[in-house]
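Anyone up for a design puzzle?
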């Protein structure tokens, strides 16, 4: 016989089957213990099939089914519920987990200095045609600094998403990308020499890349979650350039010239301080240090970091070359090479620039953890 009324949306949705030979106790478990709602039940006198729903999850409780047991995870905000595990009909297991992941605390590790040379780089193929190279050596749960490449030009298979991070900055070192950000107006070009501070939670999407895009990206923590936002289409209509996202605001800037200030009393290096520090609420910074003539005068960069604050510092060479002295040995430091303190700077690990050419340019990325 044909139906007389249309089924509700829940009854038409995709569901997992839970076998329930003892139908009534199965129904009680889902409705009374797990707070599912009955979207449909049949037949009225002696039910053997019901569609039950909670939030975006739907099951069909079926007396006659012979399906294997389900494992259900219920995200909760209340930490005291985590670890509660229930067993329901047909061996259905229910685990309560934290809705927001707790990230590992940074372990107090001895500071080290890490030199990543471009010629020994290990490139890993990631999603959407991107290749990644770690610039800081071994995996560090608190932070990651990478060089990222997309060969050629073309559309990028990305979607509107956001990251659960405390500090994230991107610097374009080659090519360009068309990007769009929440509340920041129309899509724009992120080009060689541009800097972005991507505040926590801002929705964004990479639309296209051009001419062998290369980006240096720093993110803390490294083991962070990325969430999709299916409900937001970018560009959105709002333009609030100074909107704050957890105390930070979006910043996109460029510096083709580098003549702002003398770098640490040097007569051959200048420094351009980008707006990243101010946009991040001073938890991190990006400086561009540039040679305006060659020099053979030894320079030992000093970093003003308070003793008890964990920090990260990296120098990444974007042009030219230098000779550096580190741990009693000399190294050539050229385009694509990076030197970093992934577990914080310590004066005993200081490096020096013995000499550099006039093209020498480095990005300095710093983060106070
Ligand atoms: Fe992203």
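Challenge accepted. My sequence:
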């Amino acid at each position: 016989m044909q139906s007389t009324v249309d089924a509700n949306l829940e009854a038409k949705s995709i569901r997992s089957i839970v076998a329930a030979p003892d139908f009534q106790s199965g129904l009680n478990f889902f409705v009374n213990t797990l707070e599912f709602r009955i979207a449909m039940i049949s037949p009225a006198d002696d039910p053997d099939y019901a569609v039950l729903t909670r939030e975006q999850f739907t099951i069909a409780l079926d007396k006659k089914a012979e399906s294997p047991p389900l494992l259900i995870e219920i995200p909760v905000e209340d930490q005291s519920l985590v670890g509660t595990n229930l067993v329901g009909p047909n061996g259905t297991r229910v685990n309560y987990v934290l809705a927001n992941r707790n990230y590992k605390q940074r372990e107090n590790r001895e500071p080290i200095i890490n030199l990543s040379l471009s010629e020994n780089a290990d490139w890993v193929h990631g999603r959407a045609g991107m290749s990644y190279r770690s610039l800081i050596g071994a995996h560090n749960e608190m932070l990651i600094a990478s060089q990222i490449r997309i060969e050629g030009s073309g559309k990028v298979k990305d979607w509107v998403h956001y990251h659960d991070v405390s500090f994230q900055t991107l610097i374009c070192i080659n090519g360009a990308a068309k990007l769009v950000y929440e509340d920041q107006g129309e899509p724009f070009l992120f080009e060689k020499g541009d800097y972005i501070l991507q505040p926590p939670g801002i929705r964004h999407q990479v639309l296209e890349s051009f001419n062998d895009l290369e980006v240096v990206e720093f993110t803390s923590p490294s083991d962070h979650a990325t969430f999709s936002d299916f409900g937001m289409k970018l560009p959105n209509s709002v333009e609030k350039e100074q909107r704050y996202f957890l105390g930070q605001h979006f910043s996109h800037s460029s510096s083709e010239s580098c003549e702002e200030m003398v770098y640490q009393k040097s007569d051959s290096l200048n420094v351009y301080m980008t707006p990243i520090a101010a946009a991040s609420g001073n938890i991190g910074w990006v400086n561009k240090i540039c040679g305006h003539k060659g020099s053979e005068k030894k320079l030992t960069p000093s970093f003003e970091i308070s003793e008890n604050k964990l920090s990260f510092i990296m120098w990444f060479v974007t042009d030219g070359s230098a000779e550096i002295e580190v741990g009693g040995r000399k190294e050539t430091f050229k385009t694509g090479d990076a030197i970093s303190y992934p577990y914080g700077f310590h004066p005993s690990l200081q490096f020096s620039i013995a000499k550099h050419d006039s093209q020498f340019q480095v990005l300095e990325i710093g983060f106070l953890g």
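A detail worth pointing out: The chain has a mean pLDDT of 91.
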